[in-house]
Design goal:
four-stranded antiparallel beta sheet
Length: 162
């Protein structure tokens, strides 16, 4: 992990931010703010660089970077199944009304977890999601009607009364 001080001064010749190369940084302790840069595993399983800043001192930036790296090392996204991720996602939604939370939980339990829940999150593809949607569209709805596109959607064949 790297910790450095950067600023937003703009080089008049290039029009770009000076960042860590600003000549005021070494002589003015109040100029700029502290940033950290850390490598973490993304949701697709690939490593990516995260840089965040605006911290008042290097210790604060280092602590924030260390917390992010620890969460990555502890498996916040690594080796996580779709079902586990959906459970974590729903648990983080604090501002949901009870009926909305219940609806989300029902959809996750009845539709998403049985079809996609055991897959590793980083292996989930759009093909998997499209397959789930096609399966759901081919089933009758709870009211007994088939799932049909709306007339305004431009589907072929066009929708209409049965």
């Amino acid at each position: 992990m790297q910790v450095s001080r950067r600023c937003g001064c703009v080089d008049t010749a290039t029009g770009r931010q000076r960042g860590v190369t600003c000549p005021r940084l070494p002589i003015d302790d109040d100029h700029g703010s502290w940033y950290f840069a850390v490598q973490v595993r993304g949701l697709d399983g690939q490593r990516q660089r995260i840089r965040q800043g605006g911290y008042a001192d290097p210790e604060e930036a280092h602590a924030a970077g260390r917390a992010l790296a620890t969460a990555d090392r502890d498996g916040a996204g690594a080796g996580c199944t779709v079902g586990e991720w959906l459970a974590r996602w729903l648990a983080t939604k604090d501002a949901l009304r009870p009926s909305t939370r219940q609806g989300y939980a029902t959809h996750i339990r009845l539709y998403l977890v049985p079809r996609l829940g055991r897959m590793l999150l980083h292996q989930l593809t759009s093909r998997d999601v499209n397959g789930l949607l096609a399966t759901l569209a081919s089933r009758p709805s709870p009211t007994g009607r088939g799932c049909r596109p709306r007339p305004w959607c431009g589907s072929t064949p066009p929708c209409g009364p049965r």
